[in-house]
Fold this sequence. Notes:
Blueprint: E1 9-12, H1 16-27, E2 33-35, E3 49-51, H2 57-63, H3 67-73, E4 81-84, E5 91-92, E6 105-107, H4 108-118, E7 124-125, E8 130-135, E9 141-145, E10 150-153, E11 155-158, E12 176-187, H5 190-193, H6 195-201, E13 205-210, E14 213-219, E15 225-232, H7 237-240, H8 248-258, H9 264-271, E16 278-284, E17 297-299, H10 302-305, H11 313-330, H12 334-363
The chain binds flavin-adenine dinucleotide (FAD).
Flavin-adenine dinucleotide binds next to helix 1, helix 10 and helix 11.
Amino acid sequence: MNSARDPRIAVVGAGLGGLALAAVLQRHGRSVTVFEREASAGARSQGGTLDIHAGTGQIALRAAGLLDRFRALARPEGQEWRVLDPATGTALPFTGPVHDEDSPEIDRGQLRGLFLESLAAGTVRWGCTVTGTTPLGDGTWRLLLGDGTTEDVDLVVGADGAWSRIRPAVSPATPAYTSVTFVEAGFDDCDLRHPALARMVGHGSLLAKSDGKTLFAQRNSSGHIRAYIAFRAPQDWHLAAGVDLGDQATVRTHLLKMFDGWDESLLYLLRHNDRAFINRPLFVLPAPHTWEHVPGITLLGDAAHLMPPVGLGANLAMLDGADLAHALITEASIDDALQAYEGIMLPRSTEAALDCAGALDHLVPPTDV
Ligand SMILES: Cc1cc2nc3c(=O)[nH]c(=O)nc-3n(C[C@H](O)[C@H](O)[C@H](O)COP(=O)(O)OP(=O)(O)OC[C@H]3O[C@@H](n4cnc5c(N)ncnc54)[C@H](O)[C@@H]3O)c2cc1C
């Protein structure tokens, strides 16, 4: 990019998408600052395992110079899938989405760590919540920060996830509930403490589904198993059922009633979790979600195209970051770069969002189908 001075690039959000953007820009000698509301890299557990695809997430890792380090940590054996009959717990032929050899698993925290370690010290401003942004009239933007201060920049990239504070500057869209809720459960040190479950899940993932309900468990690194108890219900299912989400015993009793008749080997996932149940209603942005180009500001990842969590969102967020970085490095101006990036990202994410909606219906089938 030709510029009298280095453009001031502000990335809002240090998730995988924002970090991929920052890592590729810095690799090419560009300045970038990432504003992240969390207090530190370790402030929050980063969630489960992700399969990183050769055609999306791995392209971003290569662009950031991190592909070899990724491969050293990744678990190709995590692609193993088992589908069980809910009533008997016996294996069924696998008919779900095929995981090819090019999609090894890695814990999200490890992946985020790779990006963070690659960045120059001080790139991420931790504990820095962005509350909004206003145009300054000349294509530049003012970021409003939670501590009352402001930052004026040439480019704002909203990489701040589902509930983006940057999105309203380009689009009025807001996420809507999908009618599917995941309740997350966790099992530690499984090979020693939960050996039967560890054998049942194997090296990869386990799935059982029936009548709008699904049990899904995944092996993470260090012997941890993360399970999702998935069902179709109103977003306030717990209120209607009189379930206090803070009361683990009541949540467990309700879930066991919901999965009545399932084999005991599968109900282990509801009875014996080591960590508190976490209620995760799933939201999506409308698909297609597009906007008219606005100078000096854009979105990537979930902020641009929140989709059901069926294995694409993190991959696409990273690819968005790498594509935007590439455009900023190669195009003559920020405006040209944003138009080039949005011209690729918006149609790609529309197609992916429609695929993901179908995949969610496959994972947790609507009960009237
Ligand atoms: C249960 C579940 C399972 C999933 N499994 C998979 C999977 O297997 N494979 C896959 O590819 N995808 C998966 N996804 C989707 C994936 O998690 C997301 O698509 C991905 O994390 C999006 O990355 P992102 O960088 O856009 O946003 P995020 O990861 O949401 O990161 C946004 C960052 O912005 C920060 N932030 C937010 N607001 C502000 C603010 N106002 N100021 C400053 N910082 C802010 C947040 O703290 C966060 O660090 C799953 C999602 C869920 C919910």
